[in-house]
Amino acid sequence: MNAEIISVGTELLLGEIANTDAQMISEGLSLLGINVYYHTVVGDNPERVKKAVKIAKERADILITTGGLGPTCDDLTKETLAEAFSKKLVLHQPSLDRMTEMFCNMGRSMTENNKKQAMIPEGAEVLENDWGTAPGCAFYEDKKHVVMLPGPPRECRPMFYERAFPYLMKLSGGTIVSQSVRVFGLGESAMEELLRDMMNSMSNPTVAPYAKEGECLARVTAKADTEENARKMIGPVVGKVCEILGDVVYGVDVGSIEEVVVQKLTEMGETLAAAESCTGGLLSKRITDIPGASACFAGGVCAYSNEAKTAFLNVPKALIDEKGAVSPEVAAKMAEGVRDTLKSSMGIGITGIAGPDGGTEEKPVGLIYIALSDGEGTVVKKLQSRRDRQRNRLMAASTALDMIRRRLSGK
């Protein structure tokens, strides 16, 4: 089956917000083996929405809409879809009761216009929204499946995976299971080249490479009559992918590299301290975003100025004057200094030129040094990235995490 995603909202067309809902839904549909051939974005205009739905009906088996389910007069997705499929809107009393209770619990009065959110196309399956007020819904009419979801990403994502996913799974035929091999230190094109022969020789399971922010993943997907059989098919393929890619693989079905690092530090009884300059505390933030990080993270020092490097990390002023703040020698002293100061078993030091200005011919923008000290010695890694400040900071923090991972894994 194939699907079309129709995103409703003038704010999307104006560029005020990014259409992350469509990306997320497409990713989820790929897990179900449902093809997405079109993304449509349309403003809050009933005639244009109606036209977009008419076109989608002609070329898609499944129509998934996001947005336009709210209480205001320009939230017209349900009304327009109901009219397009010749359905009446009827009150869904449980949804109205739920909204009334929600407003009561918040100590607020529910205005009359909120009640329109409880109006549902006749015969539709209601998708309860535990993350907001507007319920979603799904129905089958004119040989088409229609799924309506709220627009705010904080509601749309859980609504899709917790409510719409089971409905759509029935349409995909059989059970589809995927596993993601997470990779850092290898680009998408290089990973695709390594896996190309394997990818071309397989149809079920399949292997597909994806580029993520600062890293990559290879998704292995299998379709079978049962989940158990699908997992049996996936296991050997995941193992082969990991074997081909080698030590750039940092985990399978893990959330992030920082999650892996926190888990490994905790399991091994190690502690970490971070001294950051150009990353401005980004490494510390990513680590402390992981629940349980307090068991292994001693703390961080954001030593942005040369004076801070000397005062808090005991980096000799003479060394900074001689080698410069952005140097392998200063990065090493930062790692050793924060390790000693916070009494941790491992210390990380990051110093560099994040950009977009501040570079010289000798030390260009994107030059970053990352040091890891563990009591047995200190190693320093050099990065030479681009002029994109945010990417430089992201890659520096990720590289630091990968250095810790490798050290803990003995790689």
As a percent range, the share of strand residues is: 25-35%
How are the strands of the largest sheet arranged? 2-1-3-8-7-6
Rg, rounded, reads 26 Å
| Total beta strands | 17
Shape: elongated
Classify the secondary structure makeup into a structural class.
Answer: alpha/beta
The first-to-last residue Cα distance is: 44 Å
DSSP helical segment count: 14
Residues in helices, as a percent range: 40-55%
Stretches where pLDDT is under 50 for at least 5 consecutive residues are none
Biggest sheet statistics? 6 strands, mixed
Mean pLDDT: 93
Question: Helices, strands, pairings?
Answer:
Layout: E1 2-8, H1 10-13, H2 20-31, E2 35-42, H3 46-59, E3 62-66, H4 77-84, E4 89-91, H5 93-105, E5 119-121, E6 125-127, E7 136-141, E8 144-149, H6 153-172, E9 175-183, H7 188-200, E10 206-212, E11 215-224, H8 227-245, E12 249-252, H9 257-268, E13 272-276, H10 282-288, E14 297-302, H11 306-313, H12 317-323, H13 328-341, E15 346-352, E16 367-373, E17 378-384, H14 389-409
Parallel strand pairs: 1-2, 1-3, 3-8, 13-14, 13-15
Antiparallel strand pairs: 4-5, 6-7, 7-8, 9-11, 9-12, 10-11, 15-16, 16-17
Helix pairs in contact: 2-6, 3-4, 9-14
Protein model, in words:
- The radius of gyration is 26 Å and the shape is elongated.
- The mean pLDDT is 93.
- The chain contains 14 helices and 17 strands.
- It has 411 residues and is of the alpha/beta class.
- The strands form four sheets. It has a six-stranded mixed sheet, sandwiched between helices. A five-stranded mixed sheet has the order 14-13-15-16-17, sandwiched between helices.
